[in-house]
Amino acid sequence: MNKNPLVQRAERFLSALRHCQVLGMQVEAADKKGLTLRLPYSEKIVGNPETGGIHGGAITTLMDTTCGISTVCFLPDFEVCPTLDLRIDYMHPADPHKDVYGFAECYRVTPTVIFTRGVAYQDDPAQPIAHAVGTFMRLGSGAHIKSGFPEGKA
């Protein structure tokens, strides 16, 4: 078991998101710099059956989740932070039959909004599949997910 409390917090958050469980997403790393999630390649995420290419919606889900959960790397306490806005610029298609990684960081935090940015990549973060920027609304540490965490604690 990983002793890193940020990884544990991110894993707990990820485990509360059913669609991420179905897709098999996993926490690869988490620290004060940001969060990395892995989306394993599977037939569930294929958008083009002839080539095995990954559907853009799977990349969008990965980046929305990665940007959203990256907030646990920056905030001192767990807060539910729903997506306000997400922009993804696709650079090139993902290679078939390979896992995709998402990295995101928080670069500005205000009392009401958190600003994040990140990349989706396969082999090298310097050669991204996509760039993402997202804003997330702060609801405060008292807010919680009904099916997720007791009393807003992660």
TrEMBL record:
Keywords assigned: Hydrolase
Coiled coil: none
Top-rank taxon, per record: Bacteria
Protein name in the entry: Thioesterase
One Pfam family here: 4HBT
GO cellular component: cytosol
Keyword Transcription regulation belongs to the record: no
InterPro entries to which the protein is assigned, alphabetical: HotDog_dom_sf, PAAI_dom, Thioestr_dom
All copies of domain Thioesterase, residue ranges: 52-127
Annotated NCBIfam families: unchar_dom_1
A molecular function (GO) term: 1,4-dihydroxy-2-naphthoyl-CoA thioesterase activity
